[in-house]
User: Which sequence fits this backbone?
């Protein structure tokens, strides 16, 4: 009798192992892993112009709505009230006035310097040339600005330099064992830092 009970118990455990799963907290059916979006925004070609042809019933253009993608990848819209009569024979043209970059605008120009650091600005780029070690960097909002801390034991007063758009100004202040460089921007940007042999290259996007 005892052996019969032991045999039944073993058979029962064997049946359970046939239906057991490696992890009971996940479903049996294999589902596809969802595709989550990231904050990486692919930059398309520059926009110049677009044409829209309206039907022959159109007489008054009431408004225009633009849908745009933000820096973080989210979408927003902005509507503009027009309320003007139109000729449907002619297309509606949407265009952006792009300023052509001349060699003078695209070239780096000196916007500030101290004995131990120099700043050269160009279109959406800034070269920060120094032999001092970059300790950390981060971005702060309202107003938008990029903060860079460089290692140096020195004592000097705070300096401010005017820069070229989109860089509004640069301030340099002394702290214990380091000094802080704050680059003020004219709007909301992302940024990248590329190391150079004698400093770093700040790029806005």
Assistant:
């Amino acid at each position: 009798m005892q052996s019969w009970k032991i045999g039944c118990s073993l058979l029962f455990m064997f049946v359970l192992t046939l239906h057991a799963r490696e992890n009971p907290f996940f479903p049996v059916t294999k589902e596809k892993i969802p595709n989550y979006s990231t904050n990486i925004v692919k930059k398309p070609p520059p926009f110049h112009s677009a044409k829209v042809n309206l039907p022959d019933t159109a007489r008054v253009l009431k408004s225009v709505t633009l849908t745009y993608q933000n820096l973080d990848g989210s979408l927003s819209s902005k509507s503009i009230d027009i309320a003007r009569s139109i000729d449907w024979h002619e297309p509606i043209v949407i265009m952006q006035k792009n300023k052509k970059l001349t060699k003078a605008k695209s070239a780096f120009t000196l916007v500030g310097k101290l004995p131990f650091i120099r700043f050269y600005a160009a279109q959406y780029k800034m070269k920060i040339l120094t032999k001092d070690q970059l300790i950390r960097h981060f971005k702060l909002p309202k107003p938008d600005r990029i903060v860079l801390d460089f290692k140096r034991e020195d004592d000097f007063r705070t300096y401010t330099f005017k820069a070229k758009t989109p860089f509004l100004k640069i301030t340099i202040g002394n702290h214990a064992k380091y000094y802080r460089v704050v680059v003020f921007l004219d709007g909301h940007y992302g940024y990248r830092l590329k190391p150079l042999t004698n400093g770093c290259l700040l790029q806005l996007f």
